[in-house]
Write a structure and sequence with these properties.
single chain, four-stranded antiparallel sheet, mainly beta, seven-stranded mixed sheet
């Protein structure tokens, strides 16, 4: 498994930006596809974005497409989520996750049970 630690959450006004980071250690980070999920109060955890092992393939939920960008720096063992034009409905705890897979083929990345390592989460609050 991979040990993951998120950072970068906080309080921001609608229309603002935040960048989340996910620092990894343990199993070879470089060979792992990874994802971001979020969970708002009273709601199920939902997929936000995913990236393949070397960063040249990404996928996004429709609700964040065009506003969020996922990236992965294998030299720094860190994954990022750049969030622009934030909306109040983006308010949630954001989790990073690592999967025992390398590619994004077959769209497995939408399902949280396909990931085997999770961070502790970081709170993002967007005020209107």
């Amino acid at each position: 498994q991979v040990q993951l630690v998120e950072s970068g959450g906080g309080l921001v006004q609608a229309g603002g930006s935040l960048t989340l980071s996910c620092a990894a250690s343990g199993r070879t980070f470089r060979s792992s596809a990874m994802g971001w999920f979020r969970q708002a109060p009273g709601k199920e955890r939902e997929f936000v974005a995913a990236i393949n092992w070397n960063g040249d393939s990404t996928a996004y939920a429709d609700s964040v497409k065009g506003r969020f960008t996922i990236s992965k720096d294998n030299a720094k063992n860190t994954m990022y989520l750049q969030m622009n034009n934030l909306k109040p409905e983006d308010t949630a705890v954001y989790y990073c996750a690592a999967a025992p897979r390398a590619s994004l083929i077959d769209r497995w990345y939408y399902r949280s049970n396909n990931y085997d390592s999770w961070g502790q989460g970081t709170q993002v609050t967007v005020s209107s």
